[in-house]
Q: What sequence folds into this?
């Protein structure tokens, strides 16, 4: 029968809310999909055409990934981060999520998870039989840990290996880590390994993305892929950049990969070369601008004496905290919101917060990204006009959420 370690796990909450929303829609209820985070934009046409041109590719590729793709990714990141990477530093996976799971299986030690953290980090740690240590954070520090927070945890477990997950811009908070150098000093002092989940890095609103790898490159594994900036979540292509200093870990992941996914879809790997080889700056800049406009619209409409919320800095998300005396848990609160208004949010408890904390994740991607992108050049229009015209479900859903928050 099922092993206990699996029996006690629930389906990923981000995927679960998508299924619940679809089921309610099928019953005729109008749902505002603020729970499931997915790019609203279409994949750039040159990348789609390259996929069509390579549909005939039917051979197994190298387990580590197509060499020309790995070289292209290494070159792209070397330019972006001013750190020299080679094809040997790159592993291609069927989404970065799978590569993270393999890392958790290989790693032997403590997993350091700032709260909040993406919903799959902790379950993967459980499956990898590693101990999870949660690190509390504060909104005034953008929901990221301080160096002191991290060191206090390390000093209680000095004999253990430590793997710190750092996700900036962050899912679920939409915030950017601004104390990277401070954190890197602790990382180097205690020889901590960092998994820098940079899947939203191209969607940082101020454009100048800063990676922890710039401060401690020998300790940092970078995780990224096509899903967020390219709008290609369903293509399932991600990658790890692993420094030479962690070569043994790189080799172990390759071995596990050979026994699990074997290799990523050949046509998608060939198409991905164009994603990192061609200039997509216009597409990325428009995507970033639209998300900035929509995110700030939601922020401005919701911030009140009933809702505490940080201004979004990148990605798709906001993390409102509701003031109420009606609900005992954030899950109960989100269920009431969905049933009363049709607005789907994810409870903060899914991201590591205590159940009684009335926090939730809001994804502001329920709009037609292609239509918005075709009209974003109209610089004479106000943000409110653009959202009303090209993201009407965002406007309506936010109005319903605001009215609901004032009634609880």
A:
């Amino acid at each position: 029968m099922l092993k206990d370690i699996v029996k006690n796990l629930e389906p990923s909450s981000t995927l679960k809310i998508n299924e619940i929303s679809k089921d309610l829609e099928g019953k005729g209820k109008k749902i505002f999909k603020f729970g499931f985070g997915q790019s609203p934009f279409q994949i750039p046409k040159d990348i789609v055409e390259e996929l069509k041109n390579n549909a005939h590719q039917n051979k197994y590729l190298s387990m580590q990934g197509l060499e020309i793709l790995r070289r292209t990714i290494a070159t792209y990141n070397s330019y972006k981060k001013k750190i020299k990477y080679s094809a040997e530093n790159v592993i291609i996976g069927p989404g970065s999520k799978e590569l993270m799971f393999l890392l958790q299986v290989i790693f032997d030690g403590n997993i350091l998870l700032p709260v909040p953290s993406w919903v799959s980090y902790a379950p993967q740690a459980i499956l990898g039989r590693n101990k999870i240590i949660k690190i509390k954070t504060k909104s005034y520090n953008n929901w990221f840990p301080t160096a002191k927070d991290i060191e206090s945890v390390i000093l209680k477990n000095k004999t253990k290996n430590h793997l710190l997950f750092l996700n900036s811009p962050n899912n679920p908070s939409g915030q950017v880590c601004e104390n990277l150098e401070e954190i890197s000093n602790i990382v180097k002092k205690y020889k901590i390994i960092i998994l820098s989940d940079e899947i939203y890095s191209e969607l940082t609103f101020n454009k100048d993305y800063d990676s922890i790898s710039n401060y401690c490159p020998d300790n940092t594994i970078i995780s990224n892929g096509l899903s967020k900036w390219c709008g290609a979540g369903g293509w399932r292509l991600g990658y790890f950049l692993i420094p030479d200093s962690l070569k043994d870990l790189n080799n172990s992941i390759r071995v596990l990969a050979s026994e699990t996914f074997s290799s990523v879809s050949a046509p998608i790997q060939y198409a991905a070369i164009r994603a990192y080889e061609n200039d997509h700056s216009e597409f990325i800049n428009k995507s970033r601008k639209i998300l900035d406009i929509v995110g700030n619209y939601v922020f401005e409409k919701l911030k009140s004496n009933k809702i505490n919320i940080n201004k979004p800095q990148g990605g798709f998300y906001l993390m409102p905290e509701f003031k109420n005396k009606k609900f005992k848990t954030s899950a109960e609160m989100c269920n009431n919101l969905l049933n009363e208004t049709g607005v789907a949010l994810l409870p903060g408890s899914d991201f590591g917060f205590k159940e009684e904390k009335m926090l939730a994740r809001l994804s502001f991607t329920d709009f037609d990204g292609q239509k918005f992108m075709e009209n974003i050049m109209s610089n004479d229009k106000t943000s409110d006009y653009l959202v009303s015209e090209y993201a009407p479900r965002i406007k309506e859903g936010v109005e319903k959420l605001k009215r609901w928050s004032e009634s609880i």
About this structure: The first strand starts at residue 32 and ends at 33. The longest helix spans residues 281-302. The chain has a mean pLDDT of 93.
